[in-house]
Amino acid sequence: MLLLSCPDCRSDVEFANGRVVCLQPDCGRVFTVYEERIIDMPPTRIPSWQLSAAETHFQTVEDSYRRLCQVPFDLGTEGAAWGDIDEGATEGYLRFLAEQAEAAGQLLGSPDANGWIVDVSGGSGYLLRALSEGWRGALHLEAHLPSLRAEFNRASRAGLCNMVFVRGSYLRPPLKSGSASAVLAMDTIIRSSHHTDCFFGTSMPR
Ligand SMILES: [Zn+2]
Question: Which of 75, 103, 163, 205 suits 44 as a labelling partner, its CA being 20 to 30 A distant?
């Protein structure tokens, strides 16, 4: 795939025999592909992530982040999927999600039928799912594999065939520089604002 590169050595990769392989001989990492559209590309190492500065109103979420994202990078099985919260969400929260998607859509303008849209650390994938139509492809980058599986299932049920799901770290994204036509980081910025109240000056809508 044109967008992807090795998260360790930044070299090109190729699909081969149902896997993705780094083409740099000295690296040669092999990345597993699930369901043909879920590509497992975590870096071997990620920089440590200091969360101590982030005062939180959502201790449980932060604890999840700590468990999920500290090295060693091992996110395969823990926790429920992001997006499960959306299933039983209040009207206010669902309205919040819809408003974010509408605002992001207005900022993006018309989809590029030849270009890719990427959601960095896309969480539940709600936003990318809402905005994916009309693009050549929509790539959901997320660190939590169970969430990617859940999102793959949601996208499949919705018939969104242009979505691709990549497990990786936004600290070392397995993406080529300049390869995307549009990049979203809504969940990274806005949802994280719930921990600091820095974006809207309010906490998560009820
Ligand atoms: Zn490599």
Answer: 163
